[in-house]
Structure formats: C-alpha cells, structure tokens
Design goal:
The protein has a single domain, classed as Immunoglobulins (Immunoglobulin-like), CATH 2.60.40.10. The chain contains one helix and ten strands. Strands 1, 2, 5, 7, 9 and 10 form a six-stranded mixed beta sheet that branches. Strands 4-3-6-8 form a four-stranded antiparallel beta sheet, with no helix packed on it. The longest helix has 4 residues.
C-alpha cells in the first residue's frame, strides 16, 4: 500500500431520507434508506463521492479533517443533507446523515 492510502481514514454510517409521504401516520415509517444517493465530501477544493448502498449504508476513505457534505445532484427542494459538516478522525469515524426530501 502507498503512504497516501495508509494516511486515509474510514468514514462510514447510514443515510436515511424523508419524509417519504406528505402525511406521516403512526405505525408506518416516514423515512427510508437513501439507497442510490450520492454524498459529496469536500475540503480544500477537493471532493470525494460516496454512493449509498443497501440498507442506506455508505463508506468512504478520506484524509483526516473537516469536510462539508452535500448531495449530488443538488436537490431542488428540501434542506439537503443534515448534518452538512463532518470531522474525520485518524481512526474510523461513524457518521449518519439524513436527506430532507422537502415533502410537506
């Protein structure tokens, strides 16, 4: 392995999206895994993308530091990804995200 690859840390977690219906009802989930969504992690003018897989899980290797997070493409409605910032530590970092669909 190269030194550059060894200096990267694993960021992983689950991405959910919601609400998934205009009216949420008791006993029925109002959010769902964001399968297929693409998260973009940016820092110092560089970006790395991660596609959300089965069950809403994602993982990406990044250099330690603070990153802004957004969805690609940018959604036309909703608040986008929350939280919109994450700090990657030298050891593995777990971070879950929620994508607001804008359905109200």
């Amino acid at each position: 392995m190269t030194a550059a690859l060894l200096s990267l840390a694993l960021l992983h977690g689950v991405v959910m999206r919601g609400p998934t219906a205009p009216v949420c009802t008791i006993g029925k989930p109002c959010s769902a895994p964001a399968v297929g969504a693409v998260l973009v992690f940016s820092r110092d003018g560089r970006s790395v993308r991660a596609r959300v897989g089965a069950g809403g899980r994602y993982s990406v290797r990044l250099a330690p530091g603070a990153y802004t997070v957004r969805q690609a493409p940018e959604p036309g409605v909703g608040f986008g990804v929350r939280p919109d910032r994450v700090v990657v530590r030298r050891v593995g970092t777990h971070a879950n995200f929620f994508i607001d669909t804008g359905i109200r």
